[in-house]
């Protein structure tokens, strides 16, 4: 087999040689009363190798195939079979196979044939690994390679029908061989499914990062970790909140307003944790945004919408088709989705049926720039509400644009730090400071300090 041959030609040469050697094995099995065990194993290994090489030959036809680098392994395999053929070659002029039929004598020591079996197993592993890595070819050639395998199986079945099935000592029956072939098909189909899964996961990650590349979890995790247990639980029992969460309230938007220092951000984090906990059973799709006047670059309207869409998309098993289609178009052009593209994705998620209800929590809306951000964000939130989402928004009460947008179109809920939350907070601070903890314990004035500070806090 010349070095200059293509992969396809090299594979054909090895298949032909393997088929010829397998034929010798079948003929010997049909004529020998006591066939060596190593012969049966060798014949079975040749048959499996033929199947694998046939698959490689089919996939190598694809111009995008990555199997062209197998020439060295194919040449080594071919050379090994040449050695095997030379040992079977007759020493007289009666012909290769005629000599074997006449003598019915297996020309190998068991150690020799075991060496061939080990090398053949190594070649099979190399070829199988190459096919596993060639994911794209696996996906594209599913239909064609199954047809090729069926054709080849029919040819092998035809040769097997010539074997005398009544010969004693033939351990591998036609039924067993067929079962082995079916096992091979099962493995190949499993490889195809696994390749599809890997490809889909990779594309899903790429699409989600294309939608929004920045982290959206860390801020909430930091705020939630600083909130003392049970702080803010009171809001979950508020009648207005219960009416909104149970969809008794006619308004889709619940506006929580409060003075600076009222703990609006901690209350928002408590609401988010509650919704995330309820989400699996209730079928909620929950997304959130924490606005911060120090981080204006991350809260532009398009980034806010992109983050919300990504958060929802992360929680569904299959991305809606419109997202995938636009990604395939824009990604190759190195373009990001526009604002209306992102809103179309939001609508696709709403209409996908993946969630019973979509709930969005946005904290500190007053910390957005009124002209460059809130001017577009407030209409966006109303638009989302009209399209079926529920929203919990928090802010200070006084910004005129927020009042004008939300008054009469939302339910207002006053937010404040209630006495129990303040007491818990003060007690936590005392316990976290060893010196303060020792002083109040020695003076027996812990309860008095907590009570007086709670009064002074006045809901902040």
TrEMBL record:
Residues 230-396 form the Nephrocystin 3-like N-terminal domain. This is NACHT domain-containing protein. It comes from the Eukaryota. Residues 2-171 form the Azaphilone pigments biosynthesis cluster protein L N-terminal domain. InterPro entries: NPHP3-like_N, P-loop_NTPase, PigL_N. Keywords: Repeat. The keyword Repeat applies. It comes from Morchella conica CCBAS932.
């Amino acid at each position: 087999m010349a070095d200059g041959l293509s992969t396809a030609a090299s594979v054909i040469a090895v298949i032909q040689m393997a088929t010829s050697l397998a034929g010798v094995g079948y003929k010997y099995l049909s004529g020998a009363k006591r066939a060596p065990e190593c012969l049966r194993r060798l014949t079975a290994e040749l048959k499996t190798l033929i199947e694998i090489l046939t698959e490689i030959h089919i996939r190598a036809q694809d111009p995008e195939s990555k199997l062209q680098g197998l020439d060295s392994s194919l040449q080594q395999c071919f050379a090994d079979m040449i050695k095997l053929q030379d040992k079977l070659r007759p020493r007289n002029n009666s012909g290769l196979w005629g000599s074997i039929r006449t003598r019915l004598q297996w020309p190998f020591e068991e150690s020799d044939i075991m060496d061939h079996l080990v090398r053949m197993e190594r070649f099979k592993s190399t070829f199988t690994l190459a096919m596993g890595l060639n994911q794209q070819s696996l996906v594209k050639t599913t239909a064609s390679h199954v047809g090729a395998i069926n054709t080849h199986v029919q040819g092998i079945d035809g040769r097997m029908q010539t074997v005398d099935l009544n010969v004693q000592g033939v351990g591998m029956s036609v039924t067993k061989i067929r079962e082995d072939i079916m096992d091979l098909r099962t493995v190949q189909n499993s490889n195809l499914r696994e390749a599809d899964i890997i490809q889909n996961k990779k594309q899903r990650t790429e699409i989600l990062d294309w939608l929004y590349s920045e982290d959206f979890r860390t801020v909430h995790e930091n705020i939630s970790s600083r909130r003392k247990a049970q702080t803010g639980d009171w809001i979950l029992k508020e009648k207005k909140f219960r009416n909104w969460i149970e969809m008794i309230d006619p308004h889709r938007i619940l506006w929580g307003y409060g003075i600076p220092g009222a703990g609006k951000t901690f209350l928002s984090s408590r609401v988010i944790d509650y919704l995330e906990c309820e989400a699996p059973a209730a079928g909620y799709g929950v997304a959130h945004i924490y606005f911060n006047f120090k981080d204006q670059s991350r809260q532009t309207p398009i980034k806010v919408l992109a983050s919300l869409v990504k958060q929802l998309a992360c929680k569904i098993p299959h991305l809606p088709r419109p997202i995938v289609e636009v990604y395939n178009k824009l990604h190759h052009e190195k373009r990001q989705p526009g604002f209306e593209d992102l809103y179309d994705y939001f609508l696709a998620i709403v209409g996908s049926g993946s969630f019973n209800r979509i709930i969005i929590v946005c904290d500190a809306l007053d910390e957005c720039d009124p002209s460059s951000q809130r001017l577009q964000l407030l209409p966006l939130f109303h638009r989302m509400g009209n399209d079926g989402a529920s929203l919990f928004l928090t802010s200070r009460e006084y910004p005129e644009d927020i009042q004008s947008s939300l008054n009469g179109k939302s339910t207002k809920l006053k937010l404040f730090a209630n006495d129990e939350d303040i007491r818990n907070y003060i007690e936590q601070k005392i316990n976290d400071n060893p010196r303060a903890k020792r002083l109040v314990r020695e003076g027996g004035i812990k309860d008095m300090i907590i009570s007086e500070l709670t009064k002074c806090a006045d809901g902040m």
